[in-house]
Amino acid sequence: MAGAASSGNGTAPSGGGARSRASEGKSVCDVRADQRRRVPLLRGLVSLSDPKTAHGVIPDQGPDSQGARIDWLREHRAWRGAGACSDRDQAPRGGCRLMKGVAGRYGWRRAVKAAFLHACRVSGVVHIFRLFAKRKLLVLCYHGFELDDESRFRQIFTPRDSFRHQLEVLSAQKSNVVSLGEGLARLKEGRLTGNTTVITIDDGFYGAYAVAAPLLEKFGYTATIYVSTYHVIKETPVFRLVIYYVFDFASVPVLRVRNVAWGEDQDVDLADRDASRRAMWQCITYGETACNEAQRQEIARRMSAYAGIDYEHISRTRMFSYMNRGEIRDLASRGFDIQLHTHRHRFPPGDRAAACKEIEENRGILEACTGYRPVHFCYPDGIWDRSQWAWLKEMGVESAVTSDPGLNDRRTPLLALRRFSYSPRMPDVEFAAGAAGLMPFLRPIAQPSRRGTRPLQTEERHNGNEQK
Fold first, then answer.
1. DSSP 152
2. d(Cα 182, Cα 126) in Å, to the nearest integer?
3. Cβ(232)–Cβ(367) under 8 Å?
4. How far apart are CA 80 and CA 74, in angstroms?
5. Which phi and psi angles does 431 have, rounded to 5°?
């Protein structure tokens, strides 16, 4: 399937079956044609395993297509953070090597899962599992939506085309998309019908307003948006995400950091993963523990300049910014459900006073924007503990969603609702299986819950821990 380019002397490059067949008298183009005929299933598997080729395949291997294939590999490896393609990628591939290439880019486990789910869909097994899920509530979980190139470096940003395609999948599967309130009412009363689905969006990034809301309206769907309000008030980019971006996409090989308060002057070799991460966390920890918001933004601006990144572009596109109060008000007037996600994106299990204060501040701001009292909650980062349930009830919270995977039935605690979380690297066939209610039957529903506290220096805490 992979093309082979002729060298300057007219012979095929070394490696692979193409070399031996070319030496038997076949032209390189004939060899390519043979390879394409032999591995149509693997071509499809590449498509299924890659959300960026969900509607196509690897560029065809015509006589002049070697450069196109290398460009394709560079694009997709850059997208997953693996760097430029190697010389091995330019050699022809047989069926076995192609399969290894798929697994190398996306992992054997994901490639095999995609193939298995595709077989389930083609054979009709999915419809059998949908009968088991008929009386269960599916809650989908999204976070941000891509405005520029955010999905290349963090798994919380969904590309516009991917989201549109997923809504098409829900429509094709005749999913009954309802509001959270309606879904919970049907769940409690035992009135759930097949494919009852609730769409939730966490955090309140601007992309939910600019990208997700118009697409949802186009399909006639609604969504519950859990909004953390610190950055709604400040109207600034999320500091931690900007620093992540600076270290991941710096246009210089060495970051020359000078005259900073959190450490000595240093030249950070970005090719040295350990040194790079150590410098990144020094910057983040100092900004989140010792600075106010204005100081954090100044640090972000300086670090962007060191890295050759346009901070004004980040600020202007709002790629790491939240909705403002006017945009939240507009979404509420259009029928979207705005709900609780704490003020500073934290809900400490061991501190009742701090936890309740987070909800009070969050609720006050959202109620002023929407005109109604929000009563549904999303645990920040999906971290929760049963001891918090009493606090939530005292605060008038009726339901709370986690990041624990699975479907919900009448036995599911309303303060520990399960969800199916989407990742931009998830193959389309995996999303379709999840939207049909199949995934919980393929992995244990009771996976270890994300309970308890975590240290500040964790990549999952994407909203930071700002207090000032």
1. G
2. 26
3. no
4. 10
5. -65, -45
Q: Is pLDDT at 293 greater than 80 in this prediction?
A: yes
Give the separation between CA 145 and CA 71, rounded to whole angstroms: 25
A 10 A CB-CB count for 376 gives: 22
- β-partners of residue 399 are 376
Q: Is 332 exposed, middle or buried (0-12, 13-18, 19+ CB in 10 A)?
A: middle
Taking alpha carbons only, the member of 136, 140, 118, 288 closest to residue 226 is 140
Residue type, 301: R
Domain boundary assignment for the chain? 17-106, 126-234+321-441, 239-317
Amino acid residing at 160: R
Residue 355: pLDDT band with limits 50, 70, 90: very high
Q: Token digits for 333?
A: 């007037």
Q: Determine what percent of the chain falls in helix, strand and coil, rounding each to the nearest 5.
A: 50, 10, 40
**Average pLDDT of every residue of the chain:** 76
pLDDT band for position 57 (50/70/90)? very low
Among 245, 280, 288, CA closest to 465: 288
Residues 367/373, Cβ–Cβ less than 8 Å? yes
Count of CA atoms in the C-beta half-sphere (13 A) of 307: 23
> In angstroms, rounded to a whole number, what is the distance separating the alpha carbons of residues 58 and 80?
16
Three-state DSSP state, 464: coil
Of 105 and 293, the structure prediction assigns the larger pLDDT to 293
Give the DSSP H/E element, type plus range, for residue 167. helix 160-172
CATH architecture for residues 126-234+321-441 = Alpha-Beta Barrel (3.20)
